[in-house]
Amino acid sequence: MNIVLITGSGGLIGSESATFFSKKFDKVIGIDNDMRSYFFGADASTNWNVNRIKSTVSNYEHNNIDIRNLVELEKIFNKYGSDIKLIVHTAAQPSHDWAAKEPITDFEVNALGTMHMLELTRKYCKEAVFIFTSTNKVYGDNPNFLPLIETESRWEIAETHAYFKNGIDEKMSIDHTKHSVFGASKVAADVMAQEYGKYFNMNVGVFRGGCLTGPNHSGAQLHGFLSYLMKCTLTNNSYTIFGYEGKQVRDNIHSSDLVDMFWHFYQNPKQGEAYNAGGGRFANCSMLEGIKLCEGITGKKLNYTYSNLARSGDHIWYISDVSKFQKDYPEWNYKWNLQDTLVDIYNSMIKKV
Hints:
Layout: E1 3-7, H1 12-21, E2 27-31, H2 35-40, H3 47-56, E3 60-63, H4 70-80, E4 84-89, H5 96-99, H6 103-124, E5 129-135, E6 148-150, E7 155-157, H7 181-199, E8 203-209, E9 211-213, H8 225-235, E10 239-242, E11 249-254, H9 255-267, E12 273-277, E13 284-286, H10 287-298, E14 304-307, E15 317-318, H11 323-328, H12 338-349
Parallel strand pairs: 1-2, 1-4, 2-3, 4-5, 5-8, 8-12, 9-11, 10-14, 11-15
Antiparallel strand pairs: 6-7, 11-13
């Protein structure tokens, strides 16, 4: 039997993975205990998404397990052993604002939980492919010290630094920088995932996501940029822009395109390789540009306020250079541009409001 094991299966990337890989594996084992509702409140609960997967994915098995609980996790690995061919580890505490409230919880979920998954993989199914969803926050605020220029609607890299014209690549230092507590816990997990690949010769891929987005995102103020922006535009809820005059830039990758990256990696895995995985130059926007797009799609004006207080360690300009992955996996390419992604999110939301 070929099995895919997915942590955070009720989340954006986990649920996309469950649907995608259900057609390629005999069984999908999902692990999710809805900690997102603990992090961000009832409105951010992933229970609706878990129920959706249960009803639409016939070979899905759900397990309500906290990834900090090694004993309960080990029962799953012990039961299925070498039948597990792929692990997609997406479960995390994803907000740098929230992490400052409970640093120990953040570290336990992001670093210790990842360590549990890596070690159980090594113990029970070492030949499996292990995919870890990391973050661009491992680079801390180093990108903020690049030479940036301010335009009417966004910050942009100066032409004098042509090296970064396609975005930030994996050579940017993750050291000597302010990461945020969340970023630091993800650094610990990121480096350990690489180490298991290189030291134990395991098939581990680390994907440093930009803004991950799509229709199955339970967006909240502290996490889920485009999803929450569209939600506020559609429902007339107040939205707050934090700092940089709303010109801070993010690249955005549709969950489907990211999971397609996982699939290409699975078919030809490497050991401990790290890849930047965002929308790149193909799909990116500033806050102001994102607002304009949402307003155009919904036909409504966003009710927003501006705060001069930028989030500590936040990026002013971040665009992922994905050329390393495209060089290693030339058959992969984007399918979802920014406009289509936002329309996809909108079409999903109008069914719920």
